[in-house]
Amino acid sequence: MAIISDLKDPRIRDVTVTYVEMSGDLRQAKVYVSVMGDETKQQLSLRGLQNSAGYLQSLVGKRIDTRYTPRLEFVLDLGVKRSIEISRILSEVLPPQSEETGELDAAELSAGDVPDEPLPAVSDLKHGDSKHSDSKHSDLKH
């Protein structure tokens, strides 16, 4: 359903509907949109969508079979922008990962970071397994 792409308003470009929240009585719809570009472009596209809300509501009303056509409210979804920013920050502070496995490169780790023996998988551990239990606390009674 490509309703937004049918708009002729030049302000509305690179807009993606990320999700829609409907009120319980289906009379209102909060439409979350993501807009590629800087904040000025985002605000411009949002204003264009808000100005086109009546036209869009009429198109939605023709496509759905309900007693009332929902009133559309457009909201900028900053989730995508925030996730990109978090990824950028993490890439700056975390050590690089090897391309083949996606794991941390062993050369980047210091000797104190690498365990002497591999840790067992959670599924391999059994309750009371003396091989992997902490020996200094094994004589304590619970």
What are the defining features of this structure?
142 residues; 3 helices; elongated; disordered C terminus; 27% helix; GMP Synthetase, Chain A, domain 3; three-stranded mixed β-sheet; alpha+beta
What is the fold-level CATH name, i.e. the topology of the domain at 4-84?
GMP Synthetase, Chain A, domain 3
By CATH reckoning, the class of the domain at 4-84 would read Alpha Beta
Order of helices and strands: EEHHEH
- Total number of beta strands: 3
Kindly report the oligomeric state of this protein: single chain
Tell me the β content: 15-25%
Condensed summary:
The chain is built from 3 helices and 3 strands. By secondary structure, it is α+β, with helices and mostly antiparallel strands.
Itemize the secondary structure elements and their pairings.
Blueprint: E1 15-22, E2 28-35, H1 39-51, H2 53-63, E3 71-76, H3 79-93
Parallel strand pairs: 2-3
Antiparallel strand pairs: 1-2
3D architecture notes:
The chain is α+β, with helices and mostly antiparallel strands and 142 residues long. The chain has a domain of 81 residues: GMP Synthetase, Chain A, domain 3, CATH 3.30.300.20. Helices cover 27% and strands 15% of the residues. The chain has three helices and three strands, in the order ββααβα. A three-stranded mixed beta sheet has the order 1-2-3, sandwiched between helices. The C terminus is likely disordered.
